[in-house]
Amino acid sequence: MVLYAKDIMKEYKLMMTEETTASQAAKVMSNDHVGFAIVQRDGKPIGMVTEWDFVNKIVAKDLDPKTVKLSDIMNTPLMSVDPKTPTDQVTVLMSKNGVRRLPVVENGRLIGVITSRDVLRIFKDYMDNLSDVIARFGSF
Prior knowledge:
44% of the residues lie in helices and 21% in strands. The protein has 140 residues and is α+β, with helices and mostly antiparallel strands.
């Protein structure tokens, strides 16, 4: 059975504008228990900011998060996948590009995000299922 991006993603549709300050974004991220913010323009996702961007581009440079805008620190263009992307391609893309979060975009709309935690969860489920199959064959 092939799993697709839509099967492992967590639904997430919240986006922030380029003008949102890092301080405002951090509060939303904390409230939502996520380590990222998706930046949008005209309702379309265009970039992403992660907690690493906060550390590397604000804290390490002694900048004031109340004055830094997401447009100043976002990673763009946004790397994303279609919901019908097979998970093996998702994992290759994440691994090859060193990203821990991958937005899922359908027809220009954010519908969810896949995190490295989601990938580890499906890997664990796969290993558990494989162990069950092996145990069943081992008892013949």
